[in-house]
Amino acid sequence: MPETLIRRATPADAARLAAIDAESNASPWSAQAFHDSLARGVALLAPGPGGEPDGFVLYSVLADECEILLVAVSPVARRRGIARSLLGDGIAGRQNL
């Protein structure tokens, strides 16, 4: 399986993260909720072939503790190890959470 490239999400990614969440969760967050969360927490995402995110993990970080709030991968991008890569990078601290 090829390595998944991971980058930090920015507020500009909020609408796409909300769209992925809506495809994946019964009670999805709004784009505004993602935007507000990104101001306080950290999200890592995996860009797809066109550069748009295919999946994300959203963390809340407080002092030396990190809590996973949401993990989602677009249905068309599943079964490629994206969630595993996102969680692995976060746990390894490679993105300086």
| Main sheet record | 4 strands, antiparallel
From the spread of the alpha carbons, the general shape counts as: globular
Low-confidence stretches: none
The helix content, as a percent range, equals 25-40%
SS element count, helices:
3
How many strand elements? 4
Beta-strand portion reads 25-35%
Structural class: alpha+beta
Spatially, the strands of the biggest sheet line up as 1-2-3-4
Radius of gyration equals 12 Å
Cα-to-Cα separation, first versus last residue: 25 Å
Mean pLDDT: 81
Sequence of secondary-structure elements: EHHEEEH
Structure keywords:
globular; four-stranded antiparallel beta sheet; 4 strands; 97 residues; 3 helices; alpha+beta; 28% strand
What can you tell me about this protein's structure?
The protein has 97 residues and is an alpha+beta fold. 33% of the residues lie in helices and 28% in strands. It contains three helices and four strands. Strands 1-2-3-4 form a four-stranded antiparallel beta sheet, with helices on both faces. Helix 1 (14-24) packs across helix 2 (31-40). The protein is globular. The model has no long low-confidence stretch (mean pLDDT 81).
